[in-house]
Amino acid sequence: MIDYPAAHAVAMVVQTGSFERAAQKLNITQSAVSQRVRQLEERLGAVLIERGTPCIATEKGAWLCRHMELVGSLENDLLTHLPSLGDTAKPLTLDIAVNADSLATWFMPAAAAFAATSSNVLNIIIDDQDFTHDWLRRGRVLAAVTSKAEPIIGCDVIRLGKLRYHATASPQFYQRHFSQGVTAAALAHAPVVTFNQKDQLQRDWLVTNFGTTVSGPTHFIPSSHGFVKASLAHMGWCLNPTALVHDHLASGRLVELIPGATLDVDLYWQVGRLAAKQFAGLTEAVKQAAQIGLVR
After folding, report:
1. Which of 121, 139, 194, 281 minimizes the number of CB atoms within 10 Å of its CB?
2. Which among 47, 72, 90 is the end of a domain?
3. What is the pLDDT of residues 69-104, one digit of tens each?
4. Is residue 129 one of the residues assigned to a domain?
């Protein structure tokens, strides 16, 4: 049998990021929290929490936290039908994974619409759209915006639409590096901006338009808005979502490397079936926001 007080202590440490804040939330001493966590780790023969600032869950700890989220969801559902069983339902923290460009463009209206009608709160993990499904597969989150159409085991998939990207640069950068035209040879020497080592968007655009993956020196800037600022500051060329560069393209502050040569990325919403009811409001808000912010 699972020691639920100990499991709850683990989940609270991960949620708050420290043993001290977990103790305050649970109204017990910090030493009691430490004892519960340590005893459960010894019983399971596995480290559940990576101690640090903040404390984070190990892979096994994340599975336990996901289980506690599902238990809390089921308890809240039961209390709505049998309120005499206990106190009113407590707010849940819903863990989801979203790619940075979605969060910077179309996703926030969905989060706001959900928050306006729910007492639950969101914990949004940011990762590349090609990797957010890994968080779901490993049990670290219960739902994700992902580029993967194949459902994770135990999950439902909803197609959202396409996030459209433009390969952009400042006119000054364009003139400096592409005065003789945008060619594979020129792109092999022109600086490029990339989100991080996982980011394949610039590579995909190169393959689609030039049949090559060779690019110039790379600036790594892990920020969607930072990408735009880097373009405006003549640092390099990069792929930016339409919503973030539409006005800059219209004003001439940015130009497309190849007019009309956009890159569309299909996005999907994957949500665990066991948590589908608790996520129903968020799922509906995500679908509505996607209808407005994504290309169909």
Report:
1. 121
2. 90
3. 878 777 777 776 776 666 666 778 888 999 999 999
4. no
